[in-house]
Design a protein that fits this description.
Subunit structure: Monomer and homodimer.
Strand content: under 5%
Shape: elongated
Number of strands: 0
Largest sheet: none
Radius of gyration: 34 Å
GO cellular component, one term: nucleolus
Main location: cytoplasm
Distance between the termini: 113 Å
Protein name: Nuclear nucleic acid-binding protein C1D
Family: Belongs to the C1D family.
Length: about 140
């Protein structure tokens, strides 16, 4: 970065931030090129419904986030714009998909095995009405 020419049109203090921003924009551009190289129908056909929902949500969130940044660059306060509610709505759906994914990963309970385990682990008292069989047949003489 030291070899880069610093433009005099902006304060020197923000040069590092602008360089990082430029690198991030380049990374986003590369990801978009990769995503756009495959048609949407081809991509969605290879995915299960949950993965399709994830792709749709990430796409919507990304587009609205970019619009948020655009508004900020135009001097509009995005916190007072309807895009804020849209981002929150998408975030709620993303959390729902995350919950569903976590439920799928959670272990399944084998109710039969669990009941056998609990039944065998419980202490059972000996019955009181047991009679000693050895003394029954003998008589006192």
């Amino acid at each position: 970065m030291a070899s880069e020419e610093i433009n005099e049109d902006y304060p020197v203090e923000i040069h590092e931030y602008l360089s990082t921003f430029e690198n991030s924009i380049g990374a986003v551009d590369e990801m978009l090129k990769t995503l756009m190289s495959v048609s949407r129908n081809e991509l969605l056909q290879k995915l299960d419904p949950l993965e399709q929902a994830k792709v749709d949500l990430v796409s919507a969130y990304t587009l609205n986030s970019m619009f948020w940044v655009y508004l900020a660059t135009q001097g509009v306060n995005p916190k007072e714009h309807p895009v804020k509610q849209e981002l929150e709505r998408i975030r709620v759906y993303m959390n729902r998909v995350k919950e569903i994914t976590e439920k799928k990963k959670a272990g399944k309970l084998d109710k039969g095995a669990a009941s056998r385990f609990v039944k065998n682990a419980l202490w059972e008292p000996k019955p009181k009405h047991t009679v000693k069989v050895a003394n029954k047949g003998k008589s006192k003489t």
